[in-house]
TrEMBL record:
<dbReference type="InterPro" id="IPR000160">
    <property type="entry name" value="GGDEF_dom"/>
</dbReference>
<protein>
    <recommendedName>
        <fullName>EAL domain, c-di-GMP-specific phosphodiesterase class I (Or its enzymatically inactive variant)</fullName>
    </recommendedName>
</protein>
<feature type="domain" description="GGDEF">
    <location>
        <begin position="368"/>
        <end position="493"/>
    </location>
</feature>
<keyword id="KW-0472">Membrane</keyword>
<dbReference type="InterPro" id="IPR043128">
    <property type="entry name" value="Rev_trsase/Diguanyl_cyclase"/>
</dbReference>
<dbReference type="Pfam" id="PF00563">
    <property type="entry name" value="EAL"/>
</dbReference>
<feature type="compositionally biased region" description="Low complexity">
    <location>
        <begin position="325"/>
        <end position="335"/>
    </location>
</feature>
<dbReference type="InterPro" id="IPR001633">
    <property type="entry name" value="EAL_dom"/>
</dbReference>
<keyword id="KW-0812">Transmembrane</keyword>
<feature type="transmembrane region" description="Helical">
    <location>
        <begin position="161"/>
        <end position="179"/>
    </location>
</feature>
<feature type="transmembrane region" description="Helical">
    <location>
        <begin position="44"/>
        <end position="63"/>
    </location>
</feature>
<dbReference type="InterPro" id="IPR035919">
    <property type="entry name" value="EAL_sf"/>
</dbReference>
<feature type="region of interest" description="Disordered">
    <location>
        <begin position="325"/>
        <end position="350"/>
    </location>
</feature>
<keyword id="KW-1133">Transmembrane helix</keyword>
<feature type="transmembrane region" description="Helical">
    <location>
        <begin position="217"/>
        <end position="234"/>
    </location>
</feature>
<feature type="transmembrane region" description="Helical">
    <location>
        <begin position="185"/>
        <end position="205"/>
    </location>
</feature>
<dbReference type="InterPro" id="IPR050706">
    <property type="entry name" value="Cyclic-di-GMP_PDE-like"/>
</dbReference>
């Protein structure tokens, strides 16, 4: 097909994006050569020559096919002198790019043959020739639509921070010896600019167009040649020349593929691929810094200044990002007419507010920028409808006062309000903080004073349905409410997974007892002196066929919110006492520790219910240990003291779990009627640790109060030895015995036939 006709009429063909076998083979050969050069059998410059020659040969063959052929299309030559000149431009572009890739390949092939002193000159000569030919070829290619000044500024700010990072990377990786600072800095700037140009061309909205691929390939090719020209003339270059192979090979192949794609595929626009610009430059900087530190070098003043230079473009980009037009799609080229602005909250209350919000989200031009903030007021009282309407109107007025003029506020009626902001992420979060401050003030409406504890969910606007964006912001709002309100929460995929998991738990947990899904495992408690078991602790597990095994840390908060802790507690106590009775029949004298929440312990029927269970199974009261977590008892300390005293009066032993050994904890320890004190590994540590004096205090206080100390969560021999030396009588943890089913624990007890308390 003639080049002119292809450039003039370009029907879409899906085959343009198929991988081609010769290119794959060349890439594989280049990778093999680089591996051989890094290992040592093949000289580095020979690898550059062979890989560059292979890639340039293939690219030259591809381009030569487009260069040959008549200037006119099959339906006849174009009429007019100007038309014929325009028709000949694509063929000239292919010819210039063909000459450019051949020159790049020859430059790489000449380097091993040239003497050491002439290698930099040969590389510079090839670089100049390739640059001129690539420039002429790119100018002859079809150009994209011109961007507005605002879009051009957006693009510049988008590329400045990654460009500085890449310049810093080149500065750190370039050799020091024999190179002056100005020359090294100039080479680093050129390498960084070429790298960011290639990154922008290959990740922008036109990354799938042939023109963008040609530009990216040209930048990579020049990057490789600049790197070769910057290498020292002596043997210092070594394996550093291998760094030029990947950009050289990929660059010339991209140039050829881009021209071929222009001949087959129309230029299309897509969403810019943003993550490579945000991830690759910082990763490259980290790699360069680590490489320099491994070499025993510290960053110099130039490196520090380049690192600081990254901050201003990021701030400018964030401030400039409040505009509604994105950097990759100019507003002047958007053919879609923008609908009228959606009504604000004063005109859209109730269900109409939600509809208006969805319409406003759908009407935002591409690429969509900004954030959606969903606010729930969480009023402390439940006022009547008229009062709620007055509060909603006042909340909208306050939100409008702190939002920007171009932001839109919507009353969602009953569930709070929403704000659609055109600001970037940082400014949108700041807006959320201002909303919290403004909406937290008391509301004086209809003779009543109402208070609220608002929660704000924030989701970045992007590609997606308006319903999905609203759902994401609402999920973030729910997360903020779960974490205590008066806060702003971002939406992310992990947050959604957590919330979906929480909803599944809330749906499946009711009825788990009736379905027989609850189970207990038992962790032995050993005497640290002889390592013989003295008791066990019952640990709850929920084995759901859909959710899998759920542990108490995830299970108990859901049970408390659903108000079914009493049901779970009754089941756990009954099952633990029944198992203890079975072990007692076998002649073992062990205690069974059962954890209870403060809410269970303070219920009026807890003490008589516990006594009834012990009597039903014939278990001695001194064999049961009721554990309560120390951080939870302070809120209801008098009631907790009364319940623990009631249990001890029956002969049931009590324990204080999760003892933190703080001043307040030590002060209230005298008031609690307990028998066992359980301390964690942060307190029970080996000698020489800064916490050792604190552990001495805990053990001393426990001995004076007649308490026995149990060191729990011991997961290493180091912790076990430290707990024993500190005076702890009992220990519990993975290092001593892991939690297991009743059958496995019973088999473990068989090793200690004389087990007794």
């Amino acid at each position: 097909m003639p080049v002119a006709s292809v450039f003039r009429a370009a029907p879409f063909r899906a085959t343009a994006h198929r991988p081609i076998l010769p290119e794959i083979c060349v890439l594989a050969v280049a990778a093999l050569l680089v591996a051989l050069g890094a290992a040592g059998p093949v000289p580095a410059l020979a690898v550059v020559a062979l890989a560059g020659a292979a890639a340039s040969t293939l690219a030259g063959v591809r381009l030569s096919r487009l260069t040959l052929g008549p200037d006119s299309p099959p339906d006849g030559p174009p009429a007019g002198r100007l038309a014929r000149r325009r028709a000949a431009r694509p063929r000239r572009a292919a010819a210039l790019l063909h000459a450019a890739v051949v020159t790049a390949g020859l430059t790489a092939a000449v380097l091993p043959l040239a003497s050491t002193g002439y290698r930099p000159a040969a590389a510079v000569t090839g670089l100049v020739g390739t640059t001129a030919l690539l420039g002429g070829g790119l100018v002859s290619l079809p150009h994209l639509s011109r961007a507005s000044v605002r879009a051009w500024l957006h693009r510049l700010l988008d590329q400045t921070a990654p460009g500085v990072c890449l310049v810093l990377t080149a500065w750190l990786l370039l050799p020091y010896a024999g190179v002056t600072v100005p020359v090294r800095l100039a080479v680093a700037v050129v390498l960084g600019l070429l790298a960011v140009a290639a990154l922008a061309a290959l990740t922008g909205a036109d990354r799938d167009s042939g023109t963008a691929r040609c530009r990216g390939g040209a930048a990579l090719t020049l990057f490789a040649l600049v790197l070769l020209a910057a290498l020292p003339a002596g043997p210092v270059a070594g394996r550093a020349a291998l760094l030029a192979v990947p950009p050289l090979v990929v660059g010339v192949l991209l140039v050829a593929a881009g021209v071929r794609q222009v001949a087959q595929v129309e230029t299309t626009r897509q969403s810019p691929l943003r993550w490579p610009r945000a991830v690759l430059p910082p990763v490259a900087v980290v790699f360069a810094v680590v490489h320099q530190l491994q070499a025993g070098l510290l960053p110099d003043r130039t490196a520090v200044l380049l690192a600081l230079a990254v901050v201003p473009p990021l701030v400018m980009r964030e401030l400039f990002g409040t505009a509604s037009t994105g950097p990759d799609v100019p507003a002047a080229t958007d053919p879609t007419p923008r609908p009228p602005a959606a009504p604000t909250a004063t005109d859209s209350a109730g269900p109409a507010g939600r509809v208006a919000l969805l319409r406003a989200l759908a009407a935002r031009p591409e690429p969509v920028r900004g954030a959606l903030l969903v606010v729930d007021l969480h009023l402390t009282e439940l006022p009547g409808r008229l009062v709620r309407d007055d509060v909603a109107a006042e909340a909208v007025r306050r939100a409008r006062a702190v939002a920007a003029d171009e932001d839109e506020v919507f009353d969602l009626a009953g569930s709070g309000l929403a704000v659609v902001s055109g600001s970037g992420p940082v400014l949108a979060y700041a807006l959320g903080a201002r909303l919290l401050t403004a909406l937290s003030r008391p509301y004086e409406v209809s003779g009543a004073v109402l208070r609220s504890r608002p929660s704000v969910g924030l989701a970045e606007l992007g590609r997606g349905r308006p319903e999905d964006l609203l759902r994401q912001a609402d999920l973030a709002r729910r997360r903020a409410a779960q974490l205590g309100r008066d806060r702003v929460e971002w939406y992310d995929a992990y947050l959604e997974e957590q919330l979906v998991r929480r909803l599944d738990l809330e749906r499946e947990l009711p009825g788990a007892v009736a379905r027989g899904e609850l189970d207990l495992v038992y962790q032995p408690v050993l005497g640290l002196a002889d390592r013989a078991p003295v008791g066990t602790e019952a640990l709850l597990r929920w084995r759901n066929p859909v959710l899998g095994t759920v542990f108490p840390a995830e299970l108990l908060p859901v049970a408390e919110d659903l108000d079914i802790m009493s049901e779970l507690g009754v089941w756990v106590l009954d099952r633990a006492c029944r198992q203890l009775a079975d072990w007692t029949v076998g002649g073992r004298r062990l205690w069974m520790a059962v954890n209870v929440t403060t809410r269970e312990l303070t219920s009026p029927d807890f003490v008589p219910r516990t006594a009834a269970v012990l009597e039903a199974y014939g278990v001695g009261p001194d064999q049961l240990v009721i554990e309560v977590a120390e951080p939870k008892v302070a809120a209801e300390l008098p009631t907790v003291v009364a319940r623990l005293a009631g249990l001890r009066s029956m002969g049931i032993r009590t324990a204080l779990d999760d003892f933190r050994a703080e001043h307040a904890s030590l002060a209230q320890l005298r008031r609690l009627p307990i028998d066992l004190l359980k301390v964690g590994p942060e307190v029970a540590t080996a000698s020489g640790d800064p916490h050792r004096p604190l552990l001495d205090v805990v053990v001393t206080v426990a001995e004076r109060l007649g308490l026995e100390v149990v060191a729990e969560e011991l997961e290493s021999a180091h912790q076990v030895d430290g707990a024993q030396r500190a005076g702890c009588r009992y220990g519990q943890g993975f290092e001593l015995a892991r939690p297991a089913t009743a059958e496995r624990v019973e088999a473990y007890f068989e090793e200690f036939p004389s087990t007794s308390r």
